[in-house]
Design a protein that fits this description.
three-stranded mixed β-sheet; binds glutathione; Glutaredoxin
Length: 158
């Protein structure tokens, strides 16, 4: 069973539509972002980014959540199927810091194969080289800068 953390916005609607299209059973949990419920500690455990939509699939392989990509890439070379597509481009950047997410290549051989294939693409190499050359203050951001970025502290909107 999937737990869906939701309310009514377009970002949430796309997940409702996906779940209905797939015919998957799911249980709704309403997180009232207008009342700040996304900042409650119990929801932060589900999505540390404090945003909806979020889903938890308790029926992942072996009873463990989260191996969706590894399983998919065990069946097809790319996320969309046989061809490289926008789905791979959209997902690849989030897998570049897999270590920080506790995702080990030795436990995810299909993901590792896919990552290396995309990482070696000339266009991806060119894009990453350009991005790496951009001077960003991300690494030196102060706590106040981070509060502004995340709308926290004195920047939290009433
Ligand atoms: N990229 C995310 C964005 C999610 C998002 O921005 N969610 C909004 C509601 S539409 C939210 O939870 N906002 C609460 C907040 O930022 O505090 C997605 O598409 O799901």
């Amino acid at each position: 069973m999937i737990d869906l953390y939701a309310l009514t916005s377009p970002n949430v609607q796309k997940i409702y539509i996906m779940l209905e299209e797939c015919g998957l059973p799911y249980k709704e949990h309403f997180v009232d972002v207008w009342k700040g419920e996304q900042y409650k500690p119990e929801f932060a455990k589900i999505n540390p980014n404090n945003k909806i939509p979020a889903i938890v699939d308790h029926d992942g392989p072996g009873g463990k959540p989260y191996t969706v990509i590894e399983t998919r890439l065990g069946k097809v070379p790319y996320l969309g199927g046989q061809e490289y597509s926008i789905a791979d481009m959209a997902t690849f950047p989030w897998t570049r810091n897999h270590d920080a997410q506790g995702v080990k290549w030795e436990d995810n051989p299909n993901l590792a194969r896919w990552f290396n294939a995309i990482n070696e693409r000339p266009a991806v190499k060119a894009a990453i080289a350009k991005i790496t050359a951009i001077k960003s203050n991300r690494e030196t951001a102060s706590d106040d800068d981070k509060d502004r970025f995340f709308n926290r502290g004195r920047y939290a909107r009433a």
